[in-house]
Amino acid sequence: MPSVLNQHFLQASVTNQEQWEEMLATKGLTVVDVNQQWCGPCRAVVSLLRKIKNELDDDLLHLATAEADIINALEKYRGKCEPTFLFYGGGELVAVLRGANAPMLQKMIVEELAKEKLVLEQGGERKVVQDNGLVNDEIKEEEEAPQQLDNEESITVPASKSYTVAIVKPDAVAHGKANEIIMKIQDAGFEVLAHEERTLTEVEARDFYQHKAAEACFQDLVQFMSSGPSHILVLSQVDGSASVVPAWREFIGPADVEEARREKPESLRAQYGTQPLFNAVHGSEDSDQASRELAFFFPNFRAASATEQDGEEERVERTLALIRPDAARENRGDILAQIHKSGFSVALQREVMLTEEQVRQFYLQHVEEDYFPALLRSMTSGPVLALALARTGAVHHWRSILGPADVNKAKEESPDCLRAQFAVEDGPVNQLHGSASHEEAEREIDFFFPKQRTLAVIKPDATEEHREKILEEIHAGGFSVTQLKETALSREMAEEFYKEHREKPFFGQLVEFMCRGPCMMLVLTKENAVEEWRAMMGPTDPDQAKATSPMSLRARFASDILHNSVHGASNEQHAEEKIRFIFGEICPDAELNRDGETDGTVSAEQQDGSADENTGLSRSQSEEMSDTRHQQHESDAHGSNPNDGPEHSD
């Protein structure tokens, strides 16, 4: 069986305990990027690692990533946001580096590789180190307790330590300046508490900059911020200054690039900005905005507040909010404004037309109540706006501003509450829903935002040259790769795969192209995976992609409408059909083993008949709900037309 490190990728992905043990037995120096499943590997150093790997060209140097969530040996690292790199030689830990410090990482790799070679050539002893993140022995845990406390503080924002959200914008990322900017940030004394590369959707960009909605440049700003990847950072200061917000805003300089060049020529915006909109970096305007932005981008980030007692930490959490059809039609904007004003960020948003069966499933505990028929009529009278709201104490705070469930009682006792303000005249049903508990919130969020699977294909024209970069962007986009294999399609397979195009004039040309070389087939999992992957791909025609989505994969890697680099399913039903064709009947939640195959299978009968434990819906009901959502967005998605070219279903 091939080694887990014997891969074409820059960093091998260690996804289970067996692979971890195999990695430790590999000859040479292995540098492991330890990360959390929710935030993924450290993207700030990928270019540096590629440079080091190419320059050293040494078979004894191995690079890997490992999720603390699933590797038993990394249990002590779980829940920690700070980038951590572990250096292993001969199965023993020889060095540790915390933080995305690129110069130090390069220095340590060169030095530790030289030491490991010396050990292998001359038989000397390795200098083994201990790290509190891997200590399992109780005695050692007691000895290392002070260090552990220090490490916990480094990833938690206490009341005495301020933080701010920084964004390296798409213009700076597109010009390859992200790593350089991040290094300058660290050199200036800022501490990176969390880091994520992410491409905002237009909806996310619109929500994030809602406070600028009245400005003339708002639409241009939204389009720019959703045009390609950004680097999202949570910053504090190493020296523990009273407030990091003014220090960061001073460091980045005025928003107007020309003003920055005149007045603050050493600022980031003066050095990297090109025009007012493309000013390279973003910073929170004040501590309140920093708190809202933190909840928007990092809902699982552990942040302490000044009101906490007994050393307990207050977590940013999510709750489900529903704006029922009448209010969604008449008062959507006003309600969303109140939500933002109350300190919530909208982590997820979706408009859904529910069936009666779906309403009964969602409100199962209310079906026998006298008011249920009126509730059912209300919930099926038009699209419902579903929101996953994030902030500290989200469940309690949302319910407190909603007010009493009874509309009359709300008007009498709490006329300023949302249910009183947005009540429908003579309507017996209130217009807003909120989860009753943390557990209920997660179940309800799963109901409206279930994890989806989609099929992605890296085509022959991109597999050899761009595969690694595309895979990096897939992971950076928050997708989990649950199935992966490289295969060369036979003519029969290609014809069957594209059978819906059999009568089209381009069918033969398409089949011939897909058989020219190996493709990489992937099953991607994420909330709203189908539409998210299609957005990342961009329009079918690369020329159109360059005009409307310049940072999309097709805009950057495709050469023409036939050689357009990547494929994606057009809807969830299409995705499941193609996944079954390529991978057979697989468990939707199956994990990759070391050979890129799943460890379990289920029958078609089991798949089609089983109910989703999170939503209570059967697969057919979930697909119906997903298809309804897809139809609502299909007409304007990605600017593509069914008659534009060979793969309009792509």
From TrEMBL:
Transmembrane parts of this sequence: none
Domain of life of the source: Eukaryota
CDD domains for the chain: NDPk_TX (cd04416), TRX_NDPK (cd02948)
Primary role: Major role in the synthesis of nucleoside triphosphates other than ATP.
GO cellular component labels: cytoplasm; lamellipodium; nucleus; ruffle
Residue spans of biased composition, Polar residues class: 600-620
Family: Belongs to the NDK family.
Subcellular location: Cell projection, Lamellipodium; Cell projection, Ruffle; Cytoplasm; Nucleus
Biased composition (Basic and acidic residues): 626-637
GO molecular function: metal ion binding; nucleoside diphosphate kinase activity
Organism: Scophthalmus maximus
Keywords: Cell cycle, Cytoplasm, Metal-binding, Nucleus
Residues covered by region (Disordered): 592-650
GO biological process: CTP biosynthetic process; GTP biosynthetic process; UTP biosynthetic process
Sequence ranges assigned to domain Nucleoside diphosphate kinase-like in this UniProt record: 161-305, 316-450, 451-588
Entry-linked InterPro entries: NDK-like_dom, NDK-like_dom_sf, Nucleoside_diP_kinase, Thioredoxin-like_sf, Thioredoxin_domain, TXND_domain-containing
Active site (UniProt): H282 (pros-phosphohistidine intermediate), H433 (pros-phosphohistidine intermediate), H567 (pros-phosphohistidine intermediate)
Protein name from the UniProt record: Nucleoside diphosphate kinase B
Chain residues that bind ATP: K459, F506, R534, T540, R554, N564
